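task queued by scheduler; priority normal; single chain, no ligands, no partner chains; default sampling; output format set to C-alpha cells
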Amino acid sequence: MPRLGYLLPTRERVMEGRPETGPLLALAEKAEALGFDSIWVGDSVTAKPRHDPLTLLAAVAGRTRKAELGTAVLLAALRNPVLLAHQAATVDRLCEGRLILGIGIAADTPAVRRDFEATGVPFDNRVGRMNEAMRLCRALWTGQPVDWTGLWTVRQGAVGPTPHRPGGPPIWYGGFLPAGRIRTGRLYDGWFPSQPKPEEYAAQFEDVRSAARAAGRDPAAITAAMYVTLAIDDDPARADATMNDYLVRYYRMPAAETRNRERCFAGTEADAAAWIKSYADAGASHIVLRLAGDTEHQLDIAARIRRGLGW
C-alpha cells in the first residue's frame, strides 16, 4: 500500500514572520494523528531561510511515535560529513529508527551558489562532495574506527552512538536527470524526485532499477518516492491563484518557471485524489505532499484524500 507523507511549512512560517516552533510541532502531531506515514522538513541556509531540518526533527521525534521523519531534501554537500553522521545518528536514536535522510544538490541558481559561498564550501564538484560525504557517513555509522583520506581526513574516527537502525538511516536521492537516476540506482536507497509527470514516472524509475542491477544491487530494495505540491479548493481558479501566489513568494521567481520544473497540482479535492493516485499507479510507493494555502485546512483535506484512497 502506498505511503503518504507531509512536509512541515518551515519556509512558509519564516516568510510569514511566524518562526515559532510550537505550532510546527503541533502540526507534526496532528499529521501523525491524521494517519500520515511520514513527516518531512526542508533544508536551506541563506537561499530560502528556514529552520535547521535535523534540529527540528529531533524535536518532532519527541512528539511523535510512529511516523517516519525525513529531510526533503538535505543539502549534504554543505555539511561536514563527520558532524552530519553524528547528528543523524543521534536523531535516529531519538526517533528509534524512523529517520530517512533525503539528500540533494539543489538547482544551480545564484541564491544556492550564495549558500555554498556563505558556508565556505566550493560549489564545483558538489555532486562528488555529496557522494563522498554519504560514503563517509555510512562508514562512521558502522561504529568501527574509520581511516579516511579524501576531501576529508579521518584517522581512527568513530561516532557514538551509532544509529538505531543498523547501517544507519536509508538515504534517498532527489536527482531526476538521467545522471541522477543512475546515481540513485548505484548508490542510494530511494529515489525522491519532484519533477517527473505521472506518465513519465514509471519509465524514469526503471532507469534507477536498471542502474541498480548493473551495480549488482537489488532494485526491489530501492524505494520509489515522489515529492509534490498541492493547492486544493472547490474552485479550481482559486486553487490556481493560491498556487501561483505561493510559488512566487516561496521561490521569488515567476510561478510558471517553478511549475514547469516541479510537479504542482491546483484544483478540486476529487481531482487532487486522482492525481496523487496516478503516481501510485505509476509505481511511487511513498508520496510526500507540500501544501499551499491555509495549512490546517489543506492538511485536513489531504487526510480525507488519504482515507478515500484507502491508504
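post-processing summary
- The radius of gyration is 19 Å.
- The chain has one domain: 3-309.
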